[in-house]
Design brief:
Order of helices and strands: EEEHHEH
Protein name: Integrase zinc-binding domain-containing protein
Bound molecules: zinc ion
Structural class: alpha+beta
Number of helices: 3
Radius of gyration: 14 Å
Mean pLDDT: 81
Organism: Nepenthes gracilis
Distance between the termini: 47 Å
Shape: elongated
Strand content: 5-15%
Number of strands: 4
InterPro entries: Integrase_H2C2 (IPR041588)
């Protein structure tokens, strides 16, 4: 397997397509569903407010999303920004 260039801290190491969907390998689960930006916004809202109505903080939000087997490259940053916006309303 080819290693990623040093400096790239993006995980994971490989991707695969199943039934037209892009998946990538996670640390906790074999496959994470790689979300498009539109899907990511939807999942951020669902997990942050829709499902548990708990308004979790950004760090926990990203963690809960990855526990649902979802992934996208900037999920932690997006989760922090999403929570900031939510709190400012
Ligand atoms: Zn909130």
């Amino acid at each position: 397997m080819q290693r990623r260039p040093s400096g790239s801290r993006e995980r994971p190491g490989w991707y695969t397509i199943v039934d037209g969907r892009l998946y990538c390998r996670g640390y906790l689960t074999p496959y994470l569903w790689y979300l498009t930006p539109e899907e990511a916004v939807y999942v951020l809202g669902e997990v942050h407010i829709g499902i548990c109505r708990s308004h979790v903080d950004g760090k926990n939000l990203a963690f809960k999303i990855i526990r649902q087997d979802y992934y996208w490259p900037l999920m932690k940053k997006d989760a922090l920004e999403f929570v900031k916006k939510c709190e400012s309303i």
